[in-house]
Amino acid sequence: MEVMPRRADSQADTPRAQEARWRFLIESCADLITTHKRNGVYVYVSPSSRQMLGYEPDELAGHKPLEFVHEDDKHTVQSGLSHVLQKPNASHTITYRMRTKRGNHIWVETRSNVVQHGTPEEEVVCISRDISRRKLSEEHEHEQQKRLFSMTHSPKALMWLSDMQGRRIYFNSTWLHYTGRGLRDEYGLGWMAGLHGRDKSRYSDAFSQHARELRPYEHEYRLRNRRGEYRWIRELAVPRFAEDAVFEGYTGSCFDITDMKEAHNKLRKQKEELGRLKFALDHFADHVVITDSNGLIIYANRAAVEMTGFPLEEMLGKRHGGPDLWGGNMTPDFYQDLWRQVKQEKQVYSGYLLNRKKTGEFYGAYLRVHPLTTQAGRLRYFAAFEREVPIERVEPRHIISPHQETLLDHKTGRAKAVRTRRGKK
Q: Quick check: is 4 in a domain?
């Protein structure tokens, strides 16, 4: 019996069917497939441009790739096109960054070839794919290699390698020089002879736990150096794996942090002392303000807030005794003499002055300003102490004229007119 070929099979070999099949494959491909004129202009753009770049194919057609390429990579793309046109029988691959419709850049790898369709007009066919993740992974691996190289070759890093059981099988020269022991002495668990007695069990327990979980770890312990001194060491270690993901041991780097630890402890004690001092000042009855060497307020106690009525946040960063706070009520000569005495002569100042609360109410104050200097004699801070006193103790000639005429009645707390030195009311 003669078997007749199916109609579908005969149609599958027609040029139109072949074109449809290739178009289906191209449009289903996750890679971006494009064709270009010799000047680079897009002729055809596959639909994957939507997923890869966020552009519709029509938005790219008629444009040049250079319009979307990162500024630093334009030379790479231009050179790649020239190379392909000069060697039409060879493919060329380049990597570069391309701007998406959202405005961010992605890393792209493009392979290009020149093709002819039986006509004199040549076209460049490009297959591009997003390699951003691969680039990120490569950069991460490169950074890790740089970090490991830096640690290994650092004159300060004490490096070691261990096997799967935690026995150390390698120490760099920095470690051996630091401990003053030979490689045979340190090999295996021998290095633990230099551990401080109080740190041995704690270190062993911590290492065992991390090794069971195959996790990186960071640990601190005391290690005896070549002079017999126990110094604080910070150890950072990461698990090491073979290509088949088999655990091989740990790679560790250690640094002497004794000086840093002592500085930290000193700073902690200073903070505790400052905390106690602040607690005392906050409960001090007098108004206390501390400024920097320029007279800008960096601290004020509770009494200062209660006496002036200004919240602490309004005081900080402003000039002590300035007109935008409680000051500015005395003559310019008064303030000049005050600052000359404490800033230039570095002498303690004391005297009476007129202040004004946030409510506008005047009050008299007895002020003492202490310049605080370093051991070398350089000014660092000023400490100002004020106590509220009756206004009549303030020398009238140092009060600016407008306030002389509106001083408070000390019995009622209200302003009243007083005679000035010129006899005016």
A: no
